[in-house]
Structure formats: C-alpha cells, structure tokens
Amino acid sequence: MSSNINPKDSLLLIVDIQEKFRPVISGIDDIISNIAKLVRAFNLLKIPILVTEQYPKGLGSTVKEISHALDKFDYVEKVCFDCFEKKEFADLIKKKNVKNIIISGIESHVCIIQTALSALEKGFDVYAVADAISSRKKIDYEIALRRMEKEGVKLVSTEMIIFQMIEDAKDENFKEISRIVK
Hints:
The protein is α/β, with parallel strands linked by helices. The protein has a single domain (8-181), classed as Isochorismatase-like (Rossmann fold, 3-Layer(aba) Sandwich). Helices cover 45% and strands 20% of the residues. The chain has eight helices and six strands. It has a six-stranded parallel beta sheet, sandwiched between helices. It is globular, with a radius of gyration of 15 Å.
C-alpha cells in the first residue's frame, strides 16, 4: 500500500448522511460541513463520488447541505451495513476502477468500519476522513477509528485529503480549493 494518494484513481464515498440521523449523531453539524467541503472539492477536481443511503424510506434522504453540493455522483440505496454486501455498490466500485477509497459518513462503528475493512480485504487503500465521520456515541467513534487504523486504514482530515489531491499551490485549482476549506 502506497503512502501517497493519486486523485486519478480515487473515489469519495459518503455513507448514510441522512435526515433522521441528524438529531442523534455526535457533532453532526461539523460532519456535514466537512463532507460538503469534500464534495465541492472533489466536484471541482472531477474525482468520482458515491453516495449511499440506509433504508431511505424510513431514515430520509441525504441532508440538503450535501445533496445540494453534489454535482455528478453515483447513488446506492441499501439496508446492509457493509456497503460491499450490496451487489450494485460492489459493481459500481469495480466499474470505477479506482485504487483509493476515501470514506466519510456514519456510523463509525457500524457501516463505516465494516465497509472500510471489506475494502481493505479487497485490496483497496482506504482513507477514513476522521473529521467527516461520526457515531451517536463518542466512544464508538473513537474505538472505531483506533481499530480501523490498526487494521490498515489511513486516517486523514478533510483539509489534509483535499490538499493532498492537488499537491501544491501551483495547481490550477488551488485558489478555489482554498476558498472551499475556509
């Protein structure tokens, strides 16, 4: 596994940031804000985005702060915790032909960790955006991050991964990226 990441073979995964979760997820406003930044930056850089929703009939759709920021993206509705258990999801990932999965969303100790560990087993490099992931309880979030890191998931922050996608201030998108992260 490489310690550097190439935007050309990367994908942003947004897991289950839905309306019904809003009142119960720790630090949800910051999580939503950071995912919206990721979406705007990845749209600008033309990096693929995949959004999942857990049982949207009961849990609602993706929050408007994120859905309104989305440009071109793929969408999968699911009921499984490990996104790879949904054939449509696994097929989409395969079709994208990416090496790096940058994962954000909820809940850390359920869907995020199960999906991240499956992605590792399948040979992907997995980057968990620690400030764009959460759970209802802070302890679940903290333990999930520790376990993911121990298993080989790379922990990053929103700004860290965004700036890693452009590498330096000479990039044509640097000014717009700087505006996004402020």
